[in-house]
Specification:
Blueprint (H helix, E strand, L loop, with lengths): L20 H15 L7 E4 L6 H15 L4 E6 L6 H10 L14 H9 L6 E6 L8 H7 L4 E7 L2 H5 L4 H7 L3 E4 L5 H15 L7 H10 L4 H18 L5 H20 L4 H11 L4 E2 H11 L6 H13 L3 E4 L6 E4 L1
Helix pairs in contact: 1-2, 3-4, 5-7, 8-9, 8-10, 9-10, 10-11, 12-13, 12-14
The structure holds a DNA duplex.
DNA sequence: CCTCCACAGGAAGCCGGGGGAC
DNA sequence: GTCCCCCGGCTTCCTGTGGAGG
């Protein structure tokens, strides 16, 4: 039944993106000056997860690349590269300028000089999960680099903007904000139809079933596509076509898979904290730390735990209610 | 109203790992 | 090998805030 498993992967980047034409056009027009060698403003893509921000950013850059020979691009995931140094390193890496840069023995100054000396073709970088950056200093260095333009991606840009100091604020105030709303049922259905056409045998699934999946995914394309794949895999073992019973089971599986993927990026200590919080309705810092330090061998300090919790909150794995004294942490 | 305390998060410094230079 | 340097995770120290209780 499955003819091409790759297109059923939520991470897969299709040749033709369906939906989001307006966003693609807007992003292209923001980046157009850069491609033509003129200074361009940055773009900030924001919205809930599974709304196609990363996909549209990569897709748009691919298209620009096809129409322009002289263009460098780079994708940086700030969850993985969150320090000042590693972001710079990754960005120079996209220019093949890191050959003689060594992680441990090259001062950041050298990387900065090299970046500021850049005078090649236009360079467009995607900073995905930009709200995960340790410090926004690196953004300042980037906005004042010639020939470099940025696409910033963040769930909640307001949280990110509050961390900007004045000089950065004035530079990024003119950035074009592109908002990504949750997909409508029709839009999700269209996306699923496209994936089903390339990834499944004809007639393996009905439009009504795709609509049902779209409805269950509540606007999140990752959930929708994951559900379709789970249902197809389940059906593959048992029948010729996807049955409704396969759909029912696939939704929680797809959601669990996404959650599992998120959790796998956590460290051991972060995972322990996450598990404690998801096992309760809501918990205070004091109780949480007591449980945590009883559970692990060499507990980190409270200060470090606060950093972890901030990270988990940013990543929407847990939520916190209240400020200061009396704050509680709870599952989402 | 005042003091105490739980809690958040910034700043600075420590230290272990790891690679280059010699 | 040994020395030196750098990064990044971590701790320590600190300040600010606001609810609880005298």
């Amino acid at each position: 039944m499955i003819t091409d498993a790759r297109v059923l992967d939520p991470e897969f980047l299709p040749n033709d993106v369906v939906q989001r034409d307006a966003e693609i056009n807007l992003l292209s027009s923001v980046l157009r000056p850069a491609v033509e060698g003129n200074p361009s403003d940055s773009a900030v893509l924001h919205g809930p997860s599974g709304t196609g921000k990363t996909c549209i950013a990569q897709y748009t850059l691919d298209k620009l690349h096809q129409s322009t020979l002289e263009l460098n691009t780079q994708y940086v995931n700030c969850w993985e590269d969150h320090s000042h140094f590693s972001v710079l390193y990754r960005i120079l890496d996209g220019l093949d300028k890191t050959l003689d840069i060594h992680r441990q023995s090259t001062p950041q100054e050298v990387l900065l000089d090299r970046l500021h000396d850049y005078d090649g073709p236009p360079y467009i970088i995607i900073l995905d999960e930009a709200d995960q950056l340790d410090t926004t200093d690196v953004l300042y260095e980037l906005v004042r680099t010639r020939k470099l333009s940025m696409i910033l991606i963040a769930n909640d840009p307001d949280v990110m903007y509050t961390r900007f100091d004045d000089r950065l604020d004035s530079r990024l105030r003119t950035a074009t904000r592109i908002e990504f709303d949750a997909y409508s049922i029709d839009a999700l259905t269209a996306i699923l139809e496209d994936r089903a056409r390339w990834g499944l045998h004809p007639d393996a699934v009905t439009t009504e079933q795709l609509q049902w999946i779209a409805d269950a995914a509540v606007g999140d394309a990752r959930v929708a596509i994951g559900t379709l794949r789970q249902a197809a895999q389940r059906a593959d073992r048992e029948s010729e076509t996807i049955l409704d019973e396969h759909l029912e089971a696939a939704v929680p599986e797809a959601k669990a898979e996404i959650k599992q993927k998120n959790i796998s990026r956590l460290t051991r200590d972060q995972r322990v904290l996450y598990n404690i919080i998801t096992d309760t309705d809501s918990i205070s810092m004091g109780d949480l730390y007591d449980q945590y330090s009883a559970e692990v061998e060499n507990p980190k300090t409270k200060r470090m735990v606060r950093n972890y919790l901030q990270k988990l909150t940013h990543y929407n794995l847990i939520e916190s209610i209240g400020e200061h004294r009396g704050r509680r942490y709870q599952p989402v």
